[in-house]
Amino acid sequence: MRPLGKSLGVLAAALILIAAAALWQVDRFLNGALDVPEDGTNFEIAPGTPFARVSARLAEQGIVSQPTLLRIYARVSGKAGSIHAGEYFIAPGTTAAELLDDGQAATVLESACMDCHGLEQIAESSLDAVQWRSRLTKELSRGAALLIEDVEPLVQWLAE
What share of the chain is helix, strand, coil (3-state, %, to 5)? Predict the structure, then answer.
């Protein structure tokens, strides 16, 4: 019985090491900078494009190195369904995790703000977080199609 117990111990240790290595790889991918030019890049998602295709296109353009890992993370975290059609700007230094968060913020921006305000007008506004929070709160009181829970993530994204 001893050899079996020893074998199970070795197997358990090997599985723990493999799991730790996999988690380290996922963390490295999610928190490492994406491969975008120094001046950033635009990325467009056409209406009806499934997230699997979005991640594949990001890989084809050399922006992400592991599209399958991005797709799995997006589905597990619940962020895949929050990425919608539109044009996204990916800044240098953006991580895969930030890309998904920014995609959610851009979706809110597009659905809540773009009907009345052009992207250029928003992009040229050099407001800090306090000013954006005040502006968005005012827009909410005027009937903007914005949910109160979307204000803070949008503020953080716009103030970057």
Answer: 65, 10, 30
* Cβ neighbours around 39 below 10 Å, total: 7
- Which residue shows structure tokens 């369904």? 81
- CB burial readout 125-142, b (16+ within 10 A) else e: eeeeeeebbeebeebbee
**Per-residue DSSP letter, 91:** -
Task: Select from 61, 68, 63, 59 the least CA-distant residue to 34.
Answer: 63
DSSP state of 117: S
For residue range 53-101, list pLDDT tens digits in order: 989 999 999 999 999 999 998 888 888 777 777 777 787 888 888 888 7
Q: In whole angstroms, what is the distance from residue 65 CA to residue 126 CA?
A: 33
Overall average pLDDT of the 5-22 stretch:
88
Domain 34-159 sits in CATH 3.60.9.10: no
Q: Please state, in angstroms and rounded to a whole number, the distance separating the CA atoms of residues 59 and 114.
A: 28
To the nearest 10 degrees (0 to 180), the angle between helices 148-159 and 96-112 is 120
- Is-contact 64 102, C-beta < 8 A? no
By C-alpha distance, which of 47, 48, 103 is closest to 70? 103
Coil, strand or helix: which one is 89? Answer: strand
